[in-house]
Amino acid sequence: MIVGILDKLFGRSKSKEEPSDNSSNDSSASVTKVAIIYYSSTGTNYQLAKWAEEGAREAGAEVKVMKVAELAPESAIASNPAWKEHIEATQHVPEATLDDLEWADGIIFSAPSRFGNVPGQMKQFLDSTGGLWFNGKLVNKVVSAMSSASNSHGGQEKTILSLYTTMFHWGAVIASPGYTDPVTFESGGNPYGTSVTVDDDGNMKEEVEQAVKHQAKRTVQIADTINK
Ligand SMILES: Cc1cc2nc3c(=O)[nH]c(=O)nc-3n(C[C@H](O)[C@H](O)[C@H](O)COP(=O)(O)O)c2cc1C
After folding, report:
1. H or E element that contains 132
2. Which atom of ligand 1 has the smallest separation from the CA of 40?
3. Ligand 1, atom 8: nearest CA belongs to which residue?
4. Does the pTM of the predicted model rise above 0.70?
5. Is the CB of 56 under 6 A from ligand 1?
6. Which tens digit of pLDDT belongs to each residue from 175-202?
């Protein structure tokens, strides 16, 4: 009964013969593949994503940086010059697809806080993963998340935990930075994922580049281990 309902919602159900883990995590895989998926209105999380890209590449991964689709109306974007400028400056960045999630062994998300929660644009993307989830394609993906907010206690940690909630349901493996490197202390000390405070002019108040790179490398290392 329940499977029938899920079939209607998400398509073909998983057959008993199919493995429940994602197919990209087989022993023939050599280079760990990392998808970095972000949402950003004014560039902060794009910058975090770019630093994560560098860190993941340095750790030997094949990396793709992608944004989620913008859903805000044109009028809202036009009312904020920094938002409009950022959208124009990132036209070249591809939009993430479900195939990218299936491709990746590790996935690093970055999203600004919206009242302590995940932006609707990112949530919409996550909500489109029902079919992958139902067919076991997100099991054992190694995931990690980053965030930003205007205030130093404006919801960064909660936003990261909100992102992870979906991934617990996927059966993903959360690769949080914890306090595994001194850079975490130097960047604000968020063990859930690197986060930053950003002022109205888009300036970051903490030095987080090295913490982002450490988080990305750790994500690759854990994905490497699971991928063996
Ligand atoms: C609708 C909305 C809600 C927000 N809520 C908060 C909030 O509760 N606390 C906070 O410190 N910042 C809040 N912000 C500020 C954003 O988190 C900040 O602009 C963002 O982190 C910048 O990241 P970006 O440059 O990648 O867009 C909010 C912004 C918007 C547009």
Report:
1. helix 130-134
2. 26
3. 115
4. yes
5. no
6. 999 999 999 999 999 999 999 999 999 9
